[in-house]
Amino acid sequence: MTLKVKALIAVVAVAILVGIGWTARGWLEDSKDLAAMQAQQKLADEIRKGQAEVSRQVADHLSKLEGTERVIDRGIIREVSKPVYQRVCLPDNAIRLLNAAAKNQSPGEPDGEVSEDSAGAD
Q1: Mean of the per-residue pLDDT values of the chain
Q2: C-alpha–C-alpha distance, residues 78 and 98, integer Å
Q3: Residue 104: how many CA atoms within 13 Å on its side-chain side?
Q4: So where are the chain's domains?
Q5: Which tens digits make up the pLDDT trace of 65-118?
Q6: Cα distance between residue 118 and residue 122, in whole Å
Q7: How does DSSP assign the chain, residue by residue?
Q8: What is the value of pTM for the model shown?
């Protein structure tokens, strides 16, 4: 055999070994993933079983309770109260200002109650 044939056989053997190793590594990773997924599925099944047991116990307890429900339907009662303003605590033009505010109108200029300093602030 010539040197080229021996080299070719060595390269093919190395390629086959690398391919076999690559495949074996894939199988190992797949088996790890499968084991993890099976463990997660088992845990999820246990959790579901526990939740089903708790919900069954709650349903049994609720079925033993008697309903004591009372519905009162009296309708809607609306009360309208209008405040009554008297000139006990309010200044003279306060009633005019309140009436204007209730009608969404501008009360106009105050009657000489603005100081001279505030007039120039605009």
Answers
A1: 79
A2: 24
A3: 0
A4: 1-63
A5: 766 656 666 666 666 666 665 556 666 677 777 788 888 877 666 555 555 555
A6: 8
A7: --HHHHHHHHHHHHHHHHHHHHHHHHHHHHHHHHHHHHHHHHHHHHHHHHHHHHHHHHHHHHHHSPP-------------------TTTS-TTHHHHHHHHHTT----S-SS-S-HHHHTT-
A8: 0.39
Q: What is the pLDDT of residues 29-48, one digit of tens each?
A: 999 999 999 999 999 999 99
Q: Is the dihedral of CA 45, 46, 47, 51 positive or negative?
A: positive
Tokens of 41: 């599925």
Q: Which residues contact 108 (CB under 8 A, 6 or more apart)?
A: 100
Q: Which amino acid is at 39?
A: A
Rounded Cα–Cα distance for residues 122 and 50 (Å): 74
Give the length of the chain: 122
